[in-house]
Amino acid sequence: MPISTTKEINEALRKQMVSASSVKISGLDGQDSIAVGIDKNVKVLVDGKAGDFFGALNKNAEITLKGDAGNFAGYMMSEGKIFIDGDAAGMLGHKMGNGMIVVSGDVESLGNILGGSLFVKGEIRDVGNAEIQTLDDNEKEILKKYNLGETKKVVSKKMEYRKKEVFKPVVSSLNDFLLLKRGNETIREVDTNLEIGKLKLKTPMFLSPEKPNPGFALGASESGTFSVCQNKEEVDAVKNTPVVVRWPVFTDLSIGDAIELLPADFKEVELLKEVTEHKETIIVRIPPFDLYENVKKAVKAKPDAIAVDCSYFPVIGVFGPALKALDEAKEKNIKLLIIANLRSAEDAVKALAFGADGIGFFYNERNGDVQTVSSEISNFINRMNEEIKTIVSSMGHDSIDQLNKNDLMALTYDAAAVTGVKLIGYDRILPMWE
Fold first, then answer.
1. 141 and 96, same domain (yes or no)
2. Tens digit of pLDDT for each residue in 357-387?
3. Which of 103, 183, 249, 361 is deepest in the core (most CB within 10 A)?
4. pLDDT tens digit string along 248-295?
5. Distance from first CA to last CA of the chain, Å, rounded?
């Protein structure tokens, strides 16, 4: 099999697995996300050095690597076997639920192992939340079949967590900014459609709830948008596409049109692209801290959208560093989404004028049956979208895509300094932004 990019290697691998029960890859040279998400009972032999996420999401295959592996080998595997005839880097077996990993060489560090069997012949430099146990007779016999002698058995410790509320949601207000109205009283038709990858939405709004609720999913879908789903019940409630699922809370990637994730490593984006055969829209959710650097890293992963989670952070501080990183990367195809506790259509329009392509509303729990909650959500989205259209029309635009910072005026010096918007009375941007 000729060696090339990760995508080409995995495509060739999938084609061979259709008719072959044994596949070999030779000459691997550090590519990430190789032999991932395999759900067939096949044997895969890989010769060379593997990058990060080798054998991740394995469901059934027996995968052997004749060489070293990078970080996150065996990530979230649920069944099958992985043999690494070499060293493994950090976070080995992170979030694995079942299956078996055997490493003949040394291991830099272990991940958060949830289940399954993990055996290491060499040195483990950082055990993490795991502990070393003695092999039983049955395990010795199993490893003997693979010509493995003295081997350490690694098992996860039972961890107890106590939930403690450290952060409180922030209701974001953009009252320090004024929208400039330029149009006449004639109400024009305004285009509020938004495309994110393959998703086609009727509104720039979507829901990013903290906890699952089927009523959110149903109400959003009836309004031409989405609520990020976290379980099967929510997915089943969606009447219209798109279905957007939160990874890894929801692990069945055969369901859905898009994936939202807060990545453990930005290379996880490539992993999900490979597992879904590049068919699903990828939305990367990142915190608002170290935003400039994080957006730069996220852009390199080439998701369809970057969503900045401002649910616990004032939204006013995110646009400058996020847009600077996107502009420097000259990346025009990645959408910028803002998840915030905005409460008015006027603030939503201001966020769009700052540079956001879409706005996620951070909803907490809602009481009531599915239909009651759905009706509340649908009415909220539809009402907000109509108000957005009215405001945008009064500003002289016929599309939300035409909104920009020239449609805003800062009412305070601090607001102008943080955002680069013209200061009222000064009528231009502050010198620091020139």
1. yes
2. 999 987 766 677 899 999 999 999 999 999 9
3. 103
4. 988 888 888 999 999 888 999 999 999 999 999 999 999 988 899 999
5. 54
* Judgement on whether residues 21 and 151 belong to the same structural domain of the protein: yes
**How many Cα atoms are found within 13 Å in the side-chain-facing hemisphere of 182?**
9
Please identify, among 156, 190, 206, the residue that sits at the C-terminal boundary of a domain: 156
R_g of the chain computed on alpha carbons: 25
CA distances (Å), 208 to each of 202, 345, 415, 431, in order? 17, 17, 27, 37
Of 178, 216, 228, 220, the C-alpha closest to 202 is: 220
Q: Are residues 386 and 430 in the same domain?
A: no
CA dist 47 → 69, 86, 97 (Å) = 11, 11, 26
**Cα 190 from Cα 172, distance rounded (Å):** 25
The structure's pTM equals 0.88
Distance (Å, whole) CA 225 – CA 217? 9
DSSP H or E stretch at residue 57: none
Contacts of 238 (CB under 8 A, 6+ apart): 217, 218, 221, 226, 229
- Asked if 145 and 138 touch (Cβ cutoff 8 Å), the reply is no
Residue 169 lies in a domain: no
Residue 117 belongs to what domain range? 6-156
Tell me, yes or no, whether 37 and 118 share the same domain: yes
